[in-house]
Write a structure and sequence with these properties.
This protein has about 270 residues and is an alpha+beta fold. The chain has two domains: about 5-55, no CATH class; about 70-265, no CATH class. The chain is built from seven helices and ten strands. It has helices spanning about 5-15, 20-65, 70-80, 105-110, 195-200, 235-250, 255-265, and strands at about 85-90, 95, 115-120, 130-135, 135-145, 145-155, 160-170, 175-185, 220, 230.
């Protein structure tokens, strides 16, 4: 009967000449196995650190959004916390989703995967995103059990790029607290001005819908003439329209409208 004791097998392997094909193949397999174990172990051990870094990046971006809102530091302090509550919501029901880790959830990945998104018909795809994720991650701040602030991630097609932004709403859910463009690739010096603080400062205080609930918030060509309008950027009509369409889509029924209704009704 062959001796299959692992230690003795290893010793016999080491005793073979260095130019032995069997020894060369066996050593290559052994090195590959050790490397695979090391890489797998590193991935497992580093995963908590990666998730923690992802959470820190998320909070840093949120802190940047909050910093643009007049008086929000006082609101956060009075609420007794410096962090916003992060929730994953089901866009179809407008309610918090179950079984999804808010930190690990990747809305961008969900938006392109067939199993976690749905195609949009052209007539309703105002933001020209093609597919809409089933779930989204939002950020909610309450003060004395009352809703004080909601921050919604939104995205849509601009003139030359996909625009990514945060839209912050006051507790009445009809007043814009801030719009923060966080990623864009529009024409430098023209469409890229949507990321300039001076233009983004035009958004706070604007109203979303009229008394009948119709969404009227829009970027207009030229100067704004009502509480629902934001000045357009001269020479950047397509980029301005991209922002306007993005905001209107995500505030509509195919975006966050079900979520906002449930927030108004205190279902969160």
């Amino acid at each position: 009967m062959a001796d299959l004791h692992p230690i003795r097998l290893w010793r016999r392997l080491l005793s073979l000449p260095n130019d032995s094909p069997a020894k060369t193949i066996a050593m290559a397999l052994a090195v590959s196995a050790v490397c695979a174990v090391v890489v797998s172990s590193a991935a497992i051990l580093l995963r908590p650190l990666q998730e923690a870094n992802r959470a820190l990046q998320q909070q840093a971006r949120l802190a940047e959004v909050v910093a643009t809102l007049p008086g929000m530091e006082d609101v956060l302090q009075s609420a007794g916390t410096g962090k916003l509550e992060t929730l994953v919501v089901d866009l179809a029901t407008g309610l918090p989703a179950t079984g999804i880790d808010p930190v690990a959830f990747d809305m961008r990945a969900a938006a392109v995967a067939e199993e976690t998104s749905s195609p949009l018909a052209p007539e309703i795809d105002l933001a020209r995103i093609g597919r809409r994720p089933h779930f989204a991650r939002i950020h909610v701040l309450k003060r004395d059990q009352q809703l004080a602030l909601v921050i919604l991630p939104i995205y849509g097609a601009g003139y030359q790029s996909t625009l990514h932004a945060y839209l912050a709403l006051r507790g009445d859910l009809n007043t814009v607290a801030a719009l923060k463009i966080v990623e864009q690739g529009e024409t430098p010096g023209i469409g890229a001005r949507i990321e300039e603080p001076a233009w983004q400062k035009l958004w706070p205080g604007k109203q979303i819908a009229d008394e009948n609930g119709a969404i009227r918030l829009a970027v207009v060509r030229g100067a704004a003439t009502s509480r629902f309008e934001v000045d357009g950027i001269t020479g950047a009509t397509r980029s301005s329209n991209g922002v306007s369409n993005m905001v209107r889509f995500w505030l509509g029924e195919n975006g966050y409208a079900p979520v906002l209704r449930n927030l108004r009704e205190g279902k969160f």
